[in-house]
């Protein structure tokens, strides 16, 4: 029973008993510490505390769990690893069960003959990549930087940028089929399936047969159903990689170059920073981290000699290879042949130099590939400050102007930021041949939540000061976030990780809005799944 008995919702003890019978008592939690962990994300606390946490271990358990919660009149907040920051899984109403998907973490099958892999929704990107590596296979989009902990179900629910996104787009572009559990326990399957052995479930192999039903559940932030099993497309892991880094005098010139590199389809992923974020990253990196990183970079080379030479170059490059006031752009290339990759690197170099870029050591580009899923220590700043990004996907032609507009917002806030100890930075990346992600990031002195302690390594946490609550600074960050959001809206930006933060519904025309609202009513008639998320159904 909960530590605090004063606030027990009616029906909770009975629901607890039912769920314990379905899942085993060890998979239903209501201790204050766990409820606290599930009631705040990386940015904010929910307006309510979760009543219970239920962790199903299979599709059948998930289906029965959902049916029991819905029948009891409770709400459901699905949670993967909890590595998001837009209010997507935190409770907005007191009678909410947090659905912990991390027990459904298996890679169910790798089928090289059909070039598909099937995982459970709570499987991490790290576990997926580890299972595929021995086959020489990969998914086209193969993970966000949080992939050590973050789940594929969470990633598809709010979409992802990063590894492979330059060539193949976001996580949902790789989906072949989904098995979705609906709030009444019903199981919905998407995609074309081929016959399997006598008596066995048919095997999905292709996404498209009529309207794209899987697509409806991608980016839904869990409001339409729970992704229980996910089948993703495979590709052969590219045999050759290339790296290049450039520093630009302004954000605008860097974004002009990145847009042209995106149009030309050259880089499999990109990662760019402003001088503010470069300073933070350099302050955070530790000597122990450097040694580990060096080992990982060297290990990727095809011979020990090449590895040693690369490690030498990384050391020589050190941390001081980026001009202090520059905008570094790090690019990774991949392909079937060394010549093809070299041609892509050369083409990107021509674009970068034309836009005023200066070539710098490609250390960071190499490190990004060598350690794609590092420990999630960046959930806090180098002095233990809180960290919160906000992002917009902008049309290629508009990226420089968007950056200029956000800079103007930050310039207006500068005196108040400086007084409150708030600093900002930017991260940029591209999505296929169509969009650039602009991600302003805030750092400010504020107390940490349980989720921060869960994400970062204990040894890293131990080095950071514990800061006191600072609602004044947080209110100022919120005000600035809102103003940046207004700029994103002015530029018609799209967003991943919509949660309870980005104004999705108002971006839709009336016919599209009616479709989304009717879908919600059809799939979740009681409105129990993540009320308020996407702006659907209940309190924000
Ligand atoms: C250090 C750090 C680095 C990051 N780097 C990246 C990056 O490179 N690229 C990027 O795109 N993002 C990044 N993120 C953001 C975030 O980690 C990703 O969006 C990630 O995919 C979230 O996955 P999760 O399992 O933690 O989902 P959660 O945060 O637990 O949930 C996300 C949303 O999905 C819903 N949900 C979760 N599981 C399911 C399910 N099985 N069925 C239905 N709904 C579900 C939740 O209700 C919620 O609305 C980063 C975050 C951190 C902290």
Kindly list the characteristics that best describe this protein.
540 residues, alpha+beta, eight-stranded antiparallel β-sheet, 18 helices, 21 strands, disordered N terminus, binds flavin-adenine dinucleotide
Description of the structure:
Helices cover 36% and strands 20% of the residues. It has 540 residues and is α+β, with helices and mostly antiparallel strands. Strands 14, 15, 16, 17, 18, 19, 20 and 21 form an 8-stranded antiparallel β-sheet that branches. Strands 5-6-12-8-9 form a 5-stranded antiparallel β-sheet. Strand 10 (192-194) and strand 11 (203-206) form a beta hairpin. Helix 8 (251-263) runs antiparallel to helix 12, helix 8 runs antiparallel to helix 14 and helix 10 runs antiparallel to helix 11 (304-317). The chain is globular. The model is unreliable at 1-6 (pLDDT under 50). Bound molecules: flavin-adenine dinucleotide. Flavin-adenine dinucleotide (FAD) binds at residues 42, 77-84, 88-89, 101, 121, 144-146, 150-151, 153-155, 157-158, 160-162, 221-222, 226-227, 376, 378-379, 496-497, 499, 530, 533.
Helix count equals 18
List the ligand species.
flavin-adenine dinucleotide
Outline the low-pLDDT stretches: 1-6
Give the termini separation.
28 Å
Give the biggest sheet. Answer: 8 strands, antiparallel
Helix content: 25-40%
Taking all Cα atoms into account, the compactness measure Rg is 23 Å
The overall strand count is: 21
Which overall shape is indicated by the principal axes computed on the Cα atoms?
A: globular
The percentage of residues in β strands lies in: 15-25%
